[in-house]
Write a structure and sequence with these properties.
Layout (H helix, E strand, L loop, with lengths): L8 E3 H8 L3 H9 L6 E2 L5 E4 H15 L5 H17 L10 H17 L3
Antiparallel strand pairs: 1-3, 2-3
Helix pairs in contact: 4-5
Length: about 120
Amino acid sequence: MSISGDTQFFLISTAARELGMHPQTLRKYERLGLVRPSRTLGSMRVYSHGEIERLRVIKFLVDEGGINLAGVQRLLEVADVLQRIRPLTRGPDWTRTSAKRLAQELDRLSAMLGL
């Protein structure tokens, strides 16, 4: 299903088949906040390419890494913080605001890790 341009969206049945997962598993992951699929006007879940990739990571961590869903959730939270930190540390636009945001994100990361 393509809505506009090159952006692809997948209905839950297609996403589940693509990932080799049961649709109920995808619903569970949504309830836990691991993914946040968009909804159509008829309330059908639609998954973006980015969400499909996130689900692949979750599947790998669970199946290959033996990590439980609480651990996966914590790892994804850490990864999200790292994604927000990365742009703050690059480029010529380093400002006090950037330094303050970086310090806040590092504090958040430390708290998540219990440090």
